[in-house]
Specification:
CATH architecture of the largest domain: Alpha-Beta Barrel
Number of domains: 2
Strand content: 15-25%
CATH class of the largest domain: Alpha Beta
Distance between the termini: 41 Å
CATH superfamily of the largest domain: Alanine racemase
Number of strands: 21
Radius of gyration: 24 Å
Bound molecules: ligand LLP
Number of helices: 12
Length: 461
Amino acid sequence: MSSHLSPGSFTGTSPVWLKEPEDVNALMPELWSRTAEKRDGELHIGGLSVPELVANVNTPAYVLDETDFRERARAFRDAFAPADVYYAGKAFLCTEVARWVDQEGLCLDVCSDGELSVALRAGIDPERIGYHGNNKTAMELRRAIVAGVGRIIVDSFEEIERVGAITAETGTPARVMVRVTAGVEAHTHEFIATAHEDQKFGFSIAGGAAFEAVRRVLAHPGIDLRGLHSHIGSQIFDTAGFEVAARRVLALHAKIAAELGHVMPEMDLGGGFGIAYTSQDDPRPAAELAAGMREIVAHECRGLGIEEPHLSIEPGRAIVGPAMCTVYTVGTVKQVALDGGVSRTYVSVDGGMSDNIRTALYDADYSATLAGRASDAAPVLARIVGKHCEAGDIVVKHEFVPGDIRPGDLVAVPATGAYGRSMASNYNHALRPPVVAVRDGVARTIVRRETVDDLLATDLG
Ligand code: LLP
């Protein structure tokens, strides 16, 4: 069964930030949810043994630490108060999590009819829902407006006319925010940066489209313009980007008041707060982010001589990302010779790009740990790969694992809560894994594993 890896053999090229650990069994607490710990090598979360848990639900499985999720939600709520915190459901949403968001006093950001359906099913007051998207259909807009959604964030001239027409036709007013691009180059992956000029979201402030959008919104009597909305991107650590965005958005906010006579009561600075996936990442605590943002907004408003609009933000990843990990079972261990006399250890697990596309899509870094036992074997550098028919099907590009890692071992990957299950696919007809919530020694499956019947249900034969 076990493959024999020479302890300490340096396999392949390793990134400079990845240091060989002193104890390969130990967790790096910054990467894990609050209740995660190792007991005699066994990973425990929420007071439960993860090996025992997955003996019941099988692998791969997402394990969601409810205590951690709720504490992060509360930390944002308290740090930013009186600002409103909209949890970005795109990071991960299901009915139970929508309820937690509500119970912790957060509002909810949705961006599709599907997400809205989950929110309504969870009993969220529609007033506390924000609706995003750069290409909402008339049908989606109508449903959102009729449901009484608290704010629709408009993103195109066509959408403004669609919303205007629906309010006129149904007699139901709509509250909107205008999504603007502040021209900020966020220091993150190109695909998750959203405030530079050359991309699909929002109206450009610099190019004048944002001002024109506001003018057109104000022409519709059924639309109540609440404010401007800016989201600069995701996995951002540097508050400088928020500062530049806030300055530009507030300057436009003041110009609208001065030139169009409309004082908007609100402003949203979006989400995007980074989390730690590996030792390279050093996220700021919510309190620090809040203090920085509050100061920026207060300072700019003083300078402009305007009243501060009521602020809101939309974190997704920073709340759910670290709260969830993915647990896999190792199926094969293979040594692959590379140039220069080195080799790389490929550890294949029973999931992959269907449950975590982020490594393939964004070249994202993750870490991993052996979850079922302690090992005294020396660490080897490995690549953890999935079971899909694709060479880019990588879960963790580089990680040290015990040299005696073998089929049957459990491997857990931390910080997979955001954009893991929510971007999961059925590639190769994979069955998407369950989400098991754990808290105080109790496990509850809140999203069940898909079955072959689920797959066949949409295939009409
Ligand atoms: N608000 C708006 C308008 C957004 O578009 C997003 C994310 C958020 C808030 C939440 O951002 P967060 O705090 O979660 O970073 N799939 C990519 C991320 C795409 C983000 C899309 N919008 C990833 O896996 O990194």
